[in-house]
Design brief:
One of its GO terms (molecular function) is metalloendopeptidase activity. This protein has 181 residues and is of the alpha/beta class. The protein folds into 2 domains: 32 residues; 145 residues, Collagenase (Catalytic Domain). Helices cover 40% and strands 19% of the residues. It is built from 5 helices and 6 strands. Strands 2-1-3-5-4-6 form a 6-stranded mixed sheet. Helix 2 crosses helix 4. The protein is globular, with a radius of gyration of 22 Å. It binds zinc ion. The site of zinc ion has 7 residues, from helix 4 and strand 6.
């Protein structure tokens, strides 16, 4: 009885060891997956500091290949505040850009967290999709002021995840543009 029991335990251990061994063989590659950190500064948009941080946090919660971290020196994504003309960004869609948040657009009723997250989406490589639903970040102003969603859809997150899967050198935007909200 004891011998059989021990035999079974050993067999089980062997059975478990094989997949673990395979797992270990795969793990180094998985761990080597590049995580790109992009720094953003928000000091140029003092009325929206919390909203910008929330917009960045929403992206960080949705993707793992690229992370947005606030740092006012050396940032490659720089927020500014303007008072007319609409919110927009000038970006290479590749982690470098100037983002302009329009206070008058917020006064019209557009949600500033959604605007910040949307413009960050451009800097992460996504184009506008104004005809999309509120559940999409890149539908921007399309769904109107009642839309306050500031989180990327699963498809948007998956797109950014794939664009940044191999790091900043390999990341390519869908397009390069000046894009409004
Ligand atoms: Zn846009």
């Amino acid at each position: 009885m004891n011998g059989r029991a021990i035999g079974r335990v050993v067999a089980l251990a062997t059975a478990v060891a094989a997949p673990l061994g395979l797992g270990l063989a795969v793990a180094p590659g998985a761990e080597a997956a590049t995580v790109t950190t992009l720094y953003y500064s928000s000091s140029g948009a003092p009325d929206y500091l919390a909203q910008i941080d929330r917009g960045a946090a929403n992206w960080n919660a949705a993707v793992t290949d690229v992370r947005l971290v606030k740092r006012n020196t050396g940032a490659t994504i720089v927020f500014h505040e303007v008072h007319s003309g609409g919110s927009y960004t000038n970006t290479d869609g590749h982690g470098h850009g100037q983002i302009y948040l329009d206070t008058s657009q917020v006064a019209e009723g557009f949600d500033p967290t959604r605007i910040a997250a949307h413009e960050l989406g451009h800097n992460l490589g996504l184009p506008d999709h104004y005809s999309g639903p509120c559940s999409e970040l890149m539908s921007g102003h399309g769904p109107g002021t009642s839309c306050t969603n500031a989180k990327p859809s699963a498809a948007e997150a998956a797109k950014v995840q794939s664009l940044w899967a191999n790091g900043i050198a390999a990341a390519r935007p869908e397009q390069t543009y000046t894009a409004a909200l």
